[in-house]
UniProtKB/TrEMBL annotation:
Keyword Acetylation: no
Protein name as catalogued: LacI family transcriptional regulator
Protein family according to the UniProt entry: Belongs to the UPF0065 (bug) family.
Origin organism lineage: Bacteria, Pseudomonadati, Pseudomonadota, Betaproteobacteria, Burkholderiales
Organism domain of life: Bacteria
Listed InterPro entries: BUG, Bug_dom1
Species the sequence originates in: Bordetella genomosp. 9
Signal sequence extent: 1-25
Keywords: Signal
Pfam families: TctC
Gene3D superfamilies associated with the record: Bordetella uptake gene, domain 1 (3.40.190.150), Periplasmic binding protein-like II (3.40.190.10)
Amino acid sequence: MRTWLRIAAALFAGAATMAPLSAHAQNFPDHAVRVVVPFPPGGTTDILARMLANALGAEWKQPVVVENKPGASGTIFSEQLARTAPDGYTLMVTATHHVINPALYKNLRYDSRTDFTPIAQVAAVPNVLVVNADFAQRNHIGSVSDLIAYAKANPGKVNFGSAGTGGANHLSGELFKSMTGVSMVHIPYKGAAPALNDLLGGQIPVMFDSVPGVLQHIKAGKLRALGVTSLKRSPALPDVPTLDEAGVKGFEATAWFGMYAPGHMPQALSERISRDVLAALRTPAIRQQFAEQGAEPGAMTQPEFARFVNAEMDKWAKVIADAQVVIQ
């Protein structure tokens, strides 16, 4: 009898503990919410975060204030967020770096799998494999298979540029190398702009870059687009096949942006915020604003996004290990 009484008391205590969490989720938010972007203002992450914050502010009837806290590829503020109370009033919108950093930086003072609560994928922006148009014409490269054949016939002689070691466009190239068996040399730059300038000038022949970053140069005929890195075609480049369609089966390396909260957030609250974010992303205004940035709004539920984040960590950790990528 006493055992049953103890069990009943434990169940009652558990229900009493959960009730305030559900009430908190139901009443959230009752004051301003802070959304931090761990990069400088003006970039794609910042632009998308501000669009989303405006929509959430209208939905929640509370101010949603965006702050920029840049530093060390987003790791400085990530550490701060990991130590923040999981009450929903401090959130972070960041880029693919968040799942790449654990494999690049060995001394992070947080656990990327347990110290954060993935809330929602905000948007995805495919990269596109482009080649300098003159290089393509001289070497008869009009497709992904042509580039692979050329690179295999000229091992170590094809350079590909990136915005820097460990970034999404660099790792797209490393994934391409590992999945096709080609030998290309990575040339890191201090940002996407100088890399693109050298690609346009012919100093480097190949690059993976975001669709918005190179679209005007593709349309102008200065670059030739061979394949996009998502599993479905980009609306901005409907005639360009995916790398999967072009023969690199299963290739996927989109740049994406996600919202995170501190770890150990009550499930009712994380799912409430996620539902509100997804509702905002479905509005015609947001869809149009994102389309202008070449971005597709996210649609994963909170549990789906959490599984996606873990899978992305595993994928990029393997790419980084296989390519022996080292941050200097």
